Amino acid sequence: MPSVIPNLLDLLVIGGGINGAGIARDAAGRGLSVLLVEKDDLGAHTSSASSKLIHGGLRYLEQYEFRLVAEALAEREVLLRIAPHLVSPARFVMPHVPQLRPRWMIRTGLFLYDHLGRRTRLPGSHAVRLDRPPYASGLKPEFRHGFIYSDCCVDDARLVVANARDAAARGAKLLLRTECIMAKREGGRWRARLQDAEGVREVVARAIVNAAGPWVKTVLNERLHQPSRDNVRLVRGSHIVVPRLYQGDHAFVLQNEDRRVVFMIPYEARYTLVGTTDVPHEGESSRPEASAAEVDYLCRAVSRYLERPLHPAAVVWRYAGVRPLYDDGSANASAVTRDYVLRLDSDQDSAPVLSVFGGKITTYRRLAEHALQNFAPWFPDMGPAWTAAKALPGGEIPAGDMASFARRLAQRYPQLPQPLLRGLARRHGALAYEVLGNTASVADLGEQFGAELYACEVDYLVEREWAVTADDVLWRRTKHGLELAPAQREALTRYLDRRIS
After folding, report:
1. Structural domains in the chain plus CATH codes
2. Confidence at 353, pLDDT banded by 50, 70, 90
3. Residue of 72, 100, 344 lying closest to 228 (CA atoms)
4. Hey, how many other C-beta atoms are within 10 angstroms of the C-beta on 269?
5. What letters, b where the CB count within 10 A reaches 16 and e where it falls short, cover 81-119?
6. pTM for the model
7. What is the mean pLDDT of the chain?
8. DSSP secondary structure string for all residues of 175-215
């Protein structure tokens, strides 16, 4: 996707994770000229390695982070409305363990959780019995009582892509696999040097957003040469995916002896996602790995509750992300705030840079609004906040009714496999019609690489979603990496090499 870059940009956004993509979308929709640069793929790091949840953060109530929880709960409603294909309601069951938290404490927390944010689409919390259907499946018989509440699941990587696509549709330029290697103030502007596989180019911008995630401090200090007392706390969160552990569509929230919680979440039809850990991360952040100790921790945590223990040998996929949390001085990694801090470096006489510390995927949209508010003195003519009312690409589904949409899609393409159509509906929403076009039969889908991945969709991911490598396709644009054998992945790599060269 070649980009013609204006001679003078309003905003240079460094970082193509959820915060960078969200800010680029918001800014482009307000009439600013925007360039986003990302040294790897969209959402290649922290933003595709989350727990796949849009949630208020029930456990943050114990840390008195009421503002963060209230904002996140409100955003949960917004994201359900603007991205119903990517954000789906889920019910979370918490078995009660009296030794860890008394019943009154959980009831109080859930009451606050139900009422801190405006809740119009999700049912409230209540007590449940775990020794009878539908919640008895898989648990040890001694767990008889529990509570159930609502939150949402999300395809995190695709949420990044959706924001990037909308930013581009509104005029933003995106340069992926392009790194900002240096920027300096010059004549009231930022002059930045960008490097990709073909060489170095320079751009000039009125302002910079530093949304580099785990590298936010490095970019601020070493690339932009801005001193800062703010520090980032790198905390690794690891997850495992295993064959389905229990029947039912509900997720579980399991209290652990260290007072953390571990989630068990139905994942991709045949699997259960288990996470997460909170471990201080040291060293390179580009390719973090879930350690054997973290895998053991997660297996032990769920085995305490499951009738059939979970062993590390059952893990089919493990992944880890490095959370760039704002360092608030907490000694315990689990207690470090998940709230975000926006640090503006400038005055009205010099070009500003705004650095994003911390944050969580649930509140990315509000973070973007707050970021643009900070730039109001430099861009007095930019438009007002708008993203809460506009669907993300693919989200234009009447009443957010995905079941009705899936039926209409099946009626339009009666000759295509139902599992394929369900997957396309979840990934692309209303844009599934664009992916399939005039396809009339399976033969029209092109080469099949395995599971329900066909050349038709791969071509679309390359042409419209910046996919280049097999990992882009298999682990971020889709999750077919769980299903494809090594030979099938190699076939996809060869196809992409031919397709892109």
Report:
1. 9-46+158-231+338-389 (3.50.50.60), 78-153+233-328 (3.30.9.10), 398-500 (1.10.8.870)
2. very high
3. 344
4. 10
5. bbbbbbbbbbbbbbbbbeeeeeeeebeebbebbbebbeb
6. 0.95
7. 93
8. EES-EEEEEEEETTEEEEEEEETTEEEEEEEEEEEE--GGG
